Task: structure prediction
Amino acid sequence: MASAVGTADEIVEALPSRGRDRLRRLGHLARQRPLGALGAVIIFILIVAALFGQDISAYGNTIVPGFAPHPAEQADPINKLQGPTWPDHIAGTDVIGRDLFSRIIFGARTAMIIGIAATGIGIAIGTLIGTVSAYGGGFVDLFIQRVSDSMQALPPLVLMMVLVTMMSPGIGTVVFVIVIFLVPGTQRVIRGTVLSIKEFTYIEAARSVGATAPRIVLRHIVPNIVAPIMVLATITIGGTILAEAALSFLALGANSAENPTWGFVLYEATQRGNLTRWPWLALTPGAAITLVVFAFNVFGDAIRDILDPRLRGTGAGA
Result:
């Protein structure tokens, strides 16, 4: 143990001074917020699985082979419903002999694409609307908030099911539907932040010297809402992945034979009494969804604590 610690210290000392400072700072943050560090590790594993789990191809040629042990759609009826075995099927096989671990790895890319795309678009639109609403005030603010209230009063899952059914299921459709229900909540958070910032003294000073509204928003307000946006984005990705999994569980997501989604793998596990007789069919996709949502939530909490001056330097949060 002592030799391992000594080796780690030697590696740190061998780095340039700037690299050593960054590593020490990261180590300090990890010790302060271990749950946030755990979430970051899980997110890193998810990103690696999404990028390199399956083959990276261009123009029909494989550039980088994936590390998934089996193709997602490869059936093996002889070994169907096989429990976890090392090293062939570490998470077991499903009703037609497909490797569950490989299917989860393939589903990581779809989860990340939808999570990042829907969150990015939804928060960008919500930030624009919330900033305009808060800074404009008056009838504009009243109208936007009443529309937002109306949308938030609707049951989101039911409406998402209706919209996906009306359109053809796919990644683009799922992203579009999730964005619709992300914008109202996002704009409310941003609106509250902008309302508090616009009353600060330096905003009044900018107005007094004749600064235009666009200049005040772009130069003084937007830079001060970057931290809340980062925290909101980190936490929202987990919720977006969960929403996509819920739609896929209802067979309305972006599932395909080559790229199965976690929710659809879980849906297949619950069919025809499979869940009670072969529980590993549901444990693997359920654990993947749970861990990823947990990781983004605790990582977002840690980011909030680090960026919030009132919590910086304390042991609060994850």
